């Protein structure tokens, strides 16, 4: 029995592909928006003057971000799988890895100026890392991957590239927060 092909079938397929493409763009834009929101949260968490709290808070924020991206893409989430990837990717940050982040965080324990030293670089590193991890997972999910088949080595150079972009974004977030804080202080200052 022969089947007959009609133009209406191919038109329906084209329409489905167009809707799927539009949905894909909307999903990617939603993912980008989520990533930027979590960059802001990571940058803010890194400013807290408590040693090691910043690293724990940023890790929790990054885990939550990937969980939300997994939900957006309809893929299952595993905290342990994602935590392993975060550790592996962040291990190459600044060429020193997690040890450098811990050392920077620990400077907050130095009486007097320690918290200021930690605030200079930790928010930018935290925001940059969050951005890069989010972008790497977003790319991976866009390509049909899941948290269970993320290949750190194949994503390493992309992560490094996104980390540099993320540091610039985090520096802007930090500067904007500083500006808003100064404006709020000015508005609250009593008139002389």
UniProtKB/TrEMBL annotation:
What are the UniProt keywords, alphabetically?
Answer: Membrane, Transmembrane, Transmembrane helix
Q: What is its main location?
A: membrane
Subcellular location per the Swiss-Prot or TrEMBL entry: Membrane
Topology within the bilayer: Multi-pass membrane protein
Q: Does the keyword Transcription apply?
A: no
**What GO cellular component entries does it have?**
membrane
- State which residue ranges cross the membrane: 38-63, 84-106, 112-133
This protein's name: GTPase domain-containing protein
Query: What is the native source organism of this protein?
Result: Oceanibaculum indicum P24
């Amino acid at each position: 029995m022969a089947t007959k092909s009609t133009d209406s079938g191919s038109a329906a397929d084209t329409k489905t592909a167009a809707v799927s493409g539009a949905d894909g763009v909307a999903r990617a834009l939603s993912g980008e928006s989520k990533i930027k929101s979590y960059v802001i949260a990571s940058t803010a968490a890194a400013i807290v003057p408590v040693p090691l709290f910043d690293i724990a808070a940023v890790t929790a924020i990054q885990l939550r971000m990937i969980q939300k991206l997994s939900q957006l893409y309809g893929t299952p989430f595993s905290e342990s799988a994602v935590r392993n990837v975060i550790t592996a990717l962040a291990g190459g940050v600044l060429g020193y890895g997690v040890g450098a982040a811990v050392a920077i965080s620990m400077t907050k324990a130095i009486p007097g100026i320690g918290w200021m030293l930690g605030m200079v670089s930790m928010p930018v590193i935290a925001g940059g890392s969050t951005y890069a991890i989010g972008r790497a997972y977003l790319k991976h999910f866009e390509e049909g991957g899941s948290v269970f088949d993320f290949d750190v080595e194949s994503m390493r150079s992309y992560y490094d590239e996104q980390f540099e972009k993320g540091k610039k974004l985090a520096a802007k977030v930090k500067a904007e927060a500083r500006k808003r804080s100064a404006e709020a202080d000015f508005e609250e200052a009593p008139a002389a």
